[in-house]
Amino acid sequence: MSKKERLWTTTALNAIVLEELKLLGELFSQSPGIPVAVLKGGALAFTLYPDPALRPLTDIDLLVLEERFEEAVTRLREAGYWEFAPDLAPGLNRVLGSHLCLRKCGLPLSLEIHWSLAASTHSHYAPDMAWFWDHVEPLRLPFPTPLLTLDPTAHLLYLASHAMLQHGEARLDPKWLYDIHLLMEKEAARINWGEMVEQAMAFHWNEALLRALRRCSELFGTVPPREVIRRLEAQRDKVAAGLLESKAVPRRKGKAAWDLFWSLDQCGKIGLLRGFLLPSPTFIRWRYKPNPAWAWPFFYLYRWFDILREGFHLAIRAICSRST
Predict the structure, then answer these.
(1) In degrees rounded to 5, what are phi and psi of residue 53?
(2) Domain positions in the chain
(3) Helix (H/G/I), strand (E/B), else coil: 101
């Protein structure tokens, strides 16, 4: 596909997203209204970039209050959305995840509706969502809308954590860092760096913020305030640094699961073990698509063998690292 064709494709897709945002604003403004904030590219493409076609979108991210989450999902289902994948076990996504992924006929991308950001509420890296809701502002679109978005301070902190902590450098999309670069370039006067650093430390996101700022500087010549870098470097988080270092290179799925396990509290650990070892029959059928269909129980054996195999690789790696 040529550059011109990619630009046309992005223009068309973003026009669809803009129309969908208009419909979503109308949906959530119905009485009783549900406050909804648009995150990442779905907001930044239309407010930060000189032309929305310069920011490709792969999904729409929405944030709702946790206590209104089920109500918001019900409205989305009534509007034609459905869940993209079943839970490992009923209700487990609310323990281990931070969002629900939905699809809709005729919409060529997914919608992710969040109740938390970047990490599960049972994670060591769970943020105080009240702080983010204290930092929302009206979303500026070409038409009147009740939709909200994060202010530059909160958005930049979330973008850094999303890129470095949630996904990691091995799965990094440069456009995520360019979002951060543009926020710093165009909204510098509105960024409260002192408050951002304080919250990053409170959430254990300071290592993610430091790495994101450094990568932006390397790739785009972004110049963050020296005092910010100095404070972040003076308060390094060794546990988070180890996790982000692990995520900076491609990992086997066993290593990714191990890293996730140790980032969770006791409730999260139990939920993760339950989901890995005894997922629901619905998930087994969806994940492995057995043929013939009646063979689905045998895929538990395959799953357990796969877990043992990954555990063996982890053990060998640990032994080798200690011997060196």
Answers:
(1) -65, -15
(2) 1-150, 151-247, 254-323
(3) strand
pTM over 0.70: yes
* Sequential DSSP letters for 157-205: HHHHHIIIIII-GGG--HHHHHHHHHHHHHSGGG--HHHHHHHHHHHT-
- The token duo for 188 is 């510098």
- Rounded CA gap, 24 and 141, in Å? 13
Which among 281, 279, 305 has a CA at the least distance from the CA of 89?
279
Angle at 68 between CA 107 and CA 95, to 5 degrees: 85
Cα–Cα distance, 232 to 241 (Å, whole number): 12
Q: Residue 11 to residues 27, 60, 174: CA-CA distances in angstroms?
A: 24, 15, 19
Averaged in consecutive runs of 10 residues, what is the pLDDT profile of the chain (324 residues)?
85 95 97 98 96 94 98 98 93 94 94 96 96 98 96 99 97 96 97 98 98 97 95 94 94 92 95 95 96 96 95 87 71
Taken in order 94, 99, 104, 110, the sign of the CA dihedral is negative
Burial status of residue 301 (CB atoms within 10 A of its CB: 0-12, 13-18, 19 or more): exposed
> What does residue 159 show for φ and ψ, rounded to 5 degrees?
-60, -40
Q: Return the CATH number of 1-150, one of 3.40.630, 3.30.300, 3.30.460, 3.40.91.
A: 3.30.460
Q: Quick check: 122 and 267 in contact, CB under 8 A? A: yes
